Amino acid sequence: MVKIDNIELGEFPLLLAPMEDVSDPPFRALCKKEGCDMMYTEFISVEGLIRDAAKSVQKLDIYEEERPVGIQIFGAEIDSMKRAAEIVEEAQPEVLDINYGCPVKKVVCKMAGAGILQDIPRMVKLTNEIVKSTSLPVTVKTRLGWDDNTKYIEEVAERLQDVGIKALSIHGRTRKQMYKGEADWTLIGKIKENPRIHIPIFGNGDINSPQKAKEYKERYGVDGIMIGRASIGNPWIFREIKHYFKTGEILPPPTLDERVDTAIQHLKHGIEWKGTKLGVLEMRRHYSMYFRSMRGIKPYRARLVTEHDPEVLYAILEEIRHVFEEVEV
After folding, report:
1. With the C-alpha atoms ordered 17, 20, 22, 23, is the resulting torsion angle positive or negative?
2. Is residue 37 predicted with pLDDT exceeding 60?
3. How far, in Å, CA of 309 to CA of 321, rounded?
């Protein structure tokens, strides 16, 4: 049984990676339904939290049906991070997660996210202060290093464990790689082989099929897998991986009805949570994924990403259901 502190996650948990403008409550609900074991919120700016910025505060929303949930924060200043940790604690997630992996320039230039990989002692000090300031279990998500010459993740894992984190998720790329090239899980595997390491180690990067999930599980010995981009428009990946682990069989792809029903549910819940304007707008990134590889879908997709009226959008989705009798690839 894999545990984060006293939170039981099953024998080999599948985690939803925190993704900006993706892993919000409507999307998390879909992933939970399909078998995801642990959710993470979108990453939240600590400066936004302590200034009571509406967008940052809204990201604290969590719902009972999606637990266990980790709220992820990012920042660079110790005082701000500690104050934000107090705010997060009031939201009552199971876990407080620190983002040391975001490679985006506007985050990195402030020495937050993956930027702190340039200063490991500061990273350790900041983590230590947050662990001491909250009663929540603290976890970390990070990368192998800043670049190929600074892959200090083995040392980082030990030092962060020593200051009290309860789990570590590692994306198998450096900051310099961004999301390019192939994720390298070799060092993640070495951390699992380290007899000093006793906290759960979760691997992240390039897991896009049940077969690859099983291969990496067996090759690198991780305690669980965190899935990010492969889940966008494809919450079914969690059930597919679990079924493959259990039976060795590949499930058939989701039916057209499942795709349409899921897109409708996603849109509906997005509007309920964000309001009509933002719910409609932010759903646009998902349509191409829900209906990818379907012959003849392009004109319908073009309508979906230009329409503003929710009722018209629902009608277009129902039209797709009736025009395409099955998913043709």
Report:
1. positive
2. yes
3. 19
Annotated catalytic residue, options 31, 36, 102, 109: 102
Among 164, 104, 122, which Cα is nearest to 139's? 164
- Answer whether 305's CB lies under 8 Å from 284's CB: yes
| Domain 256-323 fold | 1.10.1200
Strand locations in 172-308, DSSP E? 201-204, 224-227
Task: Mark whether 102 is an active-site residue.
Answer: yes
CB 18 within 8 A of CB 141: yes
Check if CATH label 3.20.20.70 holds for domain 3-247. yes
Report pLDDT digits (tens) over 171-180. 999 999 999 9
Residue 324 has a pLDDT of: 85
The per-residue b/e assignment along 13-38, b for 16 or more CB within 10 angstroms, e otherwise, is: bbbbbbbeebbbbbbbbbbbbbbbbb
- Delimit the domains of the chain by residue range: 3-247, 256-323
- Residue 7 in tokens: 């939170």
The letter for the amino acid at 203 is: G
Q: Which of 73, 83, 22 is nearest to 45 (CA)?
A: 73
Per-residue pLDDT band at 292 (split at 50, 70, 90): confident
Q: Considering the entire predicted model, what is its pTM?
A: 0.94
3-class SS shares of the chain: helix, strand, coil, % to 5: 50, 15, 40
